[in-house]
Amino acid sequence: MRIQLILLSLIISFNVSAMDNKSINDLFKKYELIMNEKRFELIDDVFSPKFIKDNGGKVEFMNKVKTLPLVKNKKSVEMSWKKGVRTEIYFVKYKRPIPDSHGTEFIVIKESEKLKIDGTLSDSN
Amino acid sequence: MKKICLLIFLFSYEVKAQWIDWCVPDHFYNFQELEKLYPYITRITPDPDLIDIRRPKYETNPEASFCKRPMEMLDTVVFHHSETASSWTPEMINALHLERSTNNDPWYMIAYSYVISSPYRGETLPVPEVAQGRPLDIVGAHAGGESYVSMDEIQTKLWTEGKVTCGKEGGVFQVDPDLLRNGKIKANVTTVGVVITGNYAPFSKLNPLGYKKDNPRNPTQETLVMAAKMSCQLQKKNPRIKKIGWHSQYKATACPGTIKNYISEIKTIAKGYGCEFN
Questions:
Q1: Strand locations in chain A (E)
Q2: Number of domains in chain A
Q3: B18 or B147: which carries more pLDDT confidence?
Q4: Terminal CA-to-CA distance of chain B, rounded, Å?
Q5: What is the mean pLDDT of residues B104-118?
Q6: Which of A103, B4, B38, B194 could be disulfide-bonded to B114 (CB atoms 3.0-4.6 Å)?
Q7: Contacts with A46 from chain B: Cβ below 8 Å
Q8: What mean pLDDT comes out for the span B112-135?
Q9: What's this model's pTM, rounded to 2 decimal places?
């Protein structure tokens, strides 16, 4: 009985982790579309209101994105993530696949059951 | 005004520190200059507290392990930017760091020893202040877990004597050999992490809260003075702290952005308060 319970909890946690993984991958696919192809209609889907406010508002953020080169179908970053210790928060590490290149850590939160980018933080540890 | 100030100084020893604050312009807070200005005062004993530091009451994670160190292990102040919006408070950083873990070991509390809240140049918010982060005798989590540095004779002796120990609240603290690699010690053990709130690096796909390239963010003069006073205060209380560095000296990172261009200015300002940094 105990072994069955352990197996069941392992299966559940594996499924939850797989779901999280899919949601995070989907979120960052959309993020890439905004940054690379300027698909601004996705902004509210990808970023929390706090992120947009911290960036000086949507117009200011779009102006910043417009300064980036237009890139199509190019995956040029490595991603890994870790769930928060206490709540449903995720830390997503994003970096170029070049040795010693620096990346950033995104703060991803769940808002109305949808994952959204809420901010960034320095990669301390 | 000068005469009133002098009278207060001469007749009330207790208000000496206040006298310095009220009567001495900031750029004269150099005691050699003061002695030149007021030659009849033979010696002014500086108050060791150059700056007020707020001490928030932080929540900690009792399940987390952390390491303790003697003050003599410290030799360097390392500056960071938080890479968050500048409005983030030390309490918000603590709440976020309590969510973090390294190799499945949760963090004990905020990773930095000090938080300087400050506006970008040209802005007025947040209200500038310095707040204590994790206590100085607790090893920080800021320079990078894979950064190791050489130890001098005193640090080697302290390490060999088992003075750097790790454990959990209320538990037994023991030496953790993982802190040492090829004779070098984790940089976090010998450094003091100071974070300036805000994102001082340029906007990019990897830094979506950064500044627009044609409008770089820089720290205000007040931020630099706070950073200098805080570093100097640390040195006065811990004379072995003789270096000021920044995060990207320890690992590949955009942190602390444009702040690193101001490190030499911070050292120069600190010199005015009687401190020498390499």
A1: 78-83, 89-95, 104-111, 114-121
A2: 1
A3: B147
A4: 38
A5: 96
A6: B194
A7: none
A8: 96
A9: 0.84
Give the three-class secondary structure for B114.
strand
CATH number at residue A51: 3.10.450
CA nearest neighbour of B122 among B29, B222, B203: B222
Domain that holds residue A85: 2-121
Question: Any idea which of A96-110, B192-206, B264-278 has the lowest mean pLDDT?
Answer: A96-110
Burial class (CB in 10 A: 0-12, 13-18, 19+), B80: buried
Q: How confident is the model at residue B15 (pLDDT cuts 50, 70, 90)?
A: very low
Q: Do B80 and A120 touch (CB under 8 A)?
A: no
Say if B104 is an interface residue toward chain A (CB within 8 Å): no
Query: Which positions in chain B touch A120 (Cβ < 8 Å)?
Result: 83-84, 199, 207-209
At A46 the pLDDT is: 98
Report chain A residues whose CB lies below 8 A from the CB of B87: 54
Asked if A104's CB is within 8 angstroms of B145's CB, the reply is: no
Min CA distance, B91 vs chain A (Å)? 14
Q: What average pLDDT does the segment B76-101 reach? A: 97
Q: Does domain B53-272 have CATH number 2.102.10.10?
A: no
One-letter amino acid for residue B274 of the chain: G
In whole angstroms, give the CA distance from residue B46 to residue B51.
Answer: 12
- Would you kindly state where each structural domain of chain B is located, as residue ranges? 2-37, 53-272
Is it the case that residue A71 has pLDDT exceeding 90?
A: no
Amino acid in the structure at residue B63: E
DSSP structure class, residue B44: -
Average pLDDT value over all residues in chain B? 88
Q: Measured between beta carbons, which residues in chain B are less than 8 angstroms from residue A119?
A: 84-85, 209
Q: CB distance A117–B208 less than 8 Å?
A: yes
SS3 of residue B122 by DSSP = coil
Instruction: Decide if A119 and B209 are in contact by the 8 Å CB cutoff.
Output: yes
CB contact under 8 A, A35 and B208: yes
